[in-house]
Amino acid sequence: MAKIGIAVFGAGLIGKTHITRLLNSKESYLAGISDPSLAGEAMAKELNVPYTTNYEDFLANHQPAGVIVATPNATHVEIGIACLEKKIPALVEKPIADTLDEAQRLCDAEKEYKTPILIGHHRRHNAILKTAKEIIQSGKLGNMITANVMSTFLKPDNYFEMAWRREKGGGPILINLIHEIDLLRFLFGQIKKVQAVSSNQERGFEVEDTASVLLTFESGMIGTITLSDTVTSPYSWDMSSGESDHYPKQHIYLYPRLYCCGIFHPLESVSKNPQRI
Fold first, then answer.
1. What is the pTM of this model?
2. I need a labelling partner for 262 at 20 to 30 A (CA). Which of 6, 42, 248, 275 fits?
3. Residue 254: what pLDDT?
């Protein structure tokens, strides 16, 4: 089969990851870059691919088979809808929007234009999580009573040079916690109740840097999440899974660890092929 051309809108931290994947893909190729920065322009020139500073010009002059939207959170909906209007499928990085109403707009547009939108919740496709779900659904662990997630890591000062990461909608709840919520739903089903508190006391930005969450699932199970991007800690997916080469890999057992029927079961101990990393 011929390779399909995928364009990337946004050549920042996540956009570069997608670009690298496309350059190494056997099924797809990089069909172009749209990014307003000088770094994005330089990357496109180096790779010899089509380039525009804004997505409207790219969509007006090019017809890729698909688009990856890796721009700041607040722009996801408008760019996603622009792709749908051109009948171009898009992978929109999480979060798909910074408000529920905006997310609904994008979902409605997908139905209207009969063109698919995918969301960047890639972790549920990882073999580690697929194995975890198989174990849970097999009944080997008994009834699920509670689960605890730690997502604690330290973002460097230069991460916040981009203004939108210091402003409402650009903090770890929408950028990082959303992954943990997706994985909990993948493993344990729908959530019916949320209680949470957040704090910005460490950095003092408009956006939060720390949060604690209590979740009640439809099954009756209860889950908790501790989140902070101000903590020097290896206890997060990126620091333990080995999924991304640009994060230091910690040799620890992978979370989550599950408590069921009053018995503590490290996930690895019930797997025929334990995942130690």
1. 0.81
2. 275
3. 46
